[in-house]
Design goal:
This is Copper transporter. Pfam families: MctB. InterPro entries: MctB. The protein has about 325 residues and is of the alpha/beta class. It folds into two domains: about 1-75; about 80-295, 3-Layer(aba) Sandwich (Rossmann fold), CATH 3.40.50. The chain has eleven helices and seven strands. The chain has helices spanning about 5-75, 95-110, 125-130, 135-145, 145-150, 160-170, 180-190, 220-240, 250-255, 260, 275-290, and strands at about 85-90, 115-125, 195-200, 205-210, 240-245, 265-270, 295. α11 (about 275-290) links the parallel β6 and β7. α2 (about 95-110) packs across α11 and α4 packs antiparallel against α7. The longest helix is centred in the N-terminal third of the chain and has 74 residues, at about 5-75. It is elongated. The mean pLDDT is about 85.
């Protein structure tokens, strides 16, 4: 009769056989498996190094291109905007750091061209928010100088009214004195969180370069895009405008997609690069010469740079 001891011994034998089988099987497969894993690791390591080398090469090429653009800029721009006054506008957003860097590059090149930057105005996200329309209207009505208030758009669009007011006090023909009450207008919009200011703004500018980044996102993105296009249009009515985008998209694509605005506002879609910054200033030279163009590498661009242009006398 089979007793308990027999069952214990049998179970022990089964587990022992399983253990021996696992050891033997692992030992048999260990060589090929380990070799295969080593091959895969080595392949991934090689691919990673190739990508790293390619990235470093691309960075080196970009630096060379930037250095080249910086070196040729004086030959292309020196004195082309002599004694011209320019307003810089930056559009705040998720990539404000890159927008600031691009704006600094454009400002430096404007100096090379002989232009004077009267100041830098930053468009805050609050200004383009649909919910701001009512307070924008209130701000315009309460701060507009008597000489301008009667000429403001008579409608319920806070962005349009405010853009018209800001353009009226910040942009004008050469030699035009500053509009009385300009500082009051700017302070009102700044204190309400609609704009940021950097500069003296002691005289109106003859032209504007708008530096814009990535397109707006979120449920109100289309409204914000429309607001920026409205602002651009109002400054265009007051003077010459160039939109310098960090990439194709956002304000650049909005301008190029509007047949009316695209006829009088020039665009550059790669202002994140030194080439794009040179192109933006060259495009402004071209605007003073009465021409409009679209430059960069995105849809609608006619080339990387405008043809060398000169400001016509009396323009």
């Amino acid at each position: 009769m089979i007793n308990f001891r027999y069952h214990v011994v049998s179970l022990a034998a089964v587990f022992l056989a399983l253990a021996i089988g696992l050891v033997v099987g692992t030992a048999a497969a260990n060589g090929p498996l380990a070799e295969n894993l080593n091959d895969q690791v080595n392949k991934i390591t090689d691919e990673k190094q190739q990508l790293r080398d390619s990235l470093e090469q691309s960075r080196a090429e970009l630096k060379k291109n930037a250095d080249f653009a910086t070196e040729v800029a004086p030959m292309l721009l020196t004195n082309k905007l002599q004694n011209k006054s320019v307003l810089l506008i930056k559009v705040d957003g998720s990539d404000s750091g890159d927008v600031n860097t691009a704006a600094e590059g454009v400002a430096a090149l404007l100096g090379t061209a002989g232009a004077k930057v009267v100041g830098t105005l930053t468009v805050k996200e609050k200004l383009t928010a649909p919910s701001s329309s009512a307070i924008l209207l209130d701000t315009a009505e309460s701060s507009a100088p008597p000489s301008i208030s009667g000429a403001l758009p008579n409608q319920a669009d806070g962005v349009d009214t405010s853009a018209a007011l800001l353009a009226a006090v910040l942009v004008g023909k050469a030699g035009t004195p500053q509009v009385e009450g300009t500082r009051t207008v700017l302070s009102a919009y700044e204190s309400n969180g609609f704009i940021g200011l950097d500069g003296d703004f002691k005289a109106p500018a003859e032209a504007v370069i708008i530096v814009a980044g990535a397109p707006a996102t979120g449920k109100d993105a289309n409204d914000r895009k429309a607001a920026l296009l409205t602002l651009t249009g109002r400054f265009d009515l007051a003077g010459r405008v160039v939109v310098a985008g960090l990439s194709y998209g956002g304000l650049v694509s909005s301008v190029r997609g509007d047949a009316s605005v695209a006829k009088s506002v020039s665009t550059v879609d790669n202002a994140v690069t030194a080439y794009g910054q040179v192109a933006a200033v060259m495009a402004l030279v071209e605007r003073f010469g009465g021409k409009t163009g679209h430059y960069g590498i995105g849809d609608g661009a006619s080339g990387l740079l405008p043809k060398t242009a000169s400001v016509t006398s009396g323009s």
